[in-house]
Amino acid sequence: MPNVRFRKLAATFAILVLAGIAVALIWVIRGVVGVETRTTSPTHEQVAYCREYLYITPDIEIEPLAYYVKDGMDYMVRFKFIAQTDDPALVFDSTQIDSSEFSADFDFPPGEETHNEIWWDIAGRPLTGASTFVPSSGSDRFFWIMHIGIAENGDGTLTVYAWRCEHGQYRS
Hints:
- There is one protein chain.
- Helices cover 24% and strands 34% of the residues.
- The protein is of the alpha+beta class.
- The chain contains two helices and seven strands.
- Strands 1-2-3-7-6-5-4 form a seven-stranded antiparallel beta sheet, with helices on one face.
- The model has no long low-confidence stretch (mean pLDDT 82).
């Protein structure tokens, strides 16, 4: 009889260990791969987050067009919006984004034009913009990369594609 009790106890223990491993793996995979949030109707909270995280000038009027966030190890935010100005220098906080770095022949990094969002329609579109480093919260030596592409609409507005990704780099 003691042998049967031991086997039942061992089986129960094995099941609990395997369940724990499965939960841990799901937690790790979710943290590494990440959870995606995407919409072509960003909420007020999502727009407010993008204004802060992407350094969009607080007083500029914008029309949000699309929002994408990928949580996980390679955290990223993409935000497409129309800015009610024809001056790219007015779109972003000048203390964080130096618009003098913008060039008229800007291209997003290779492969980015094929991003699987229909609204991320940058392929073949003439863009002004730059890839620039922005500070990481909590560190004055670690920086994230932000890519900004701006298209003139011809009606006094700009379509802005902003992508900030946490592929950081140390600066000495």
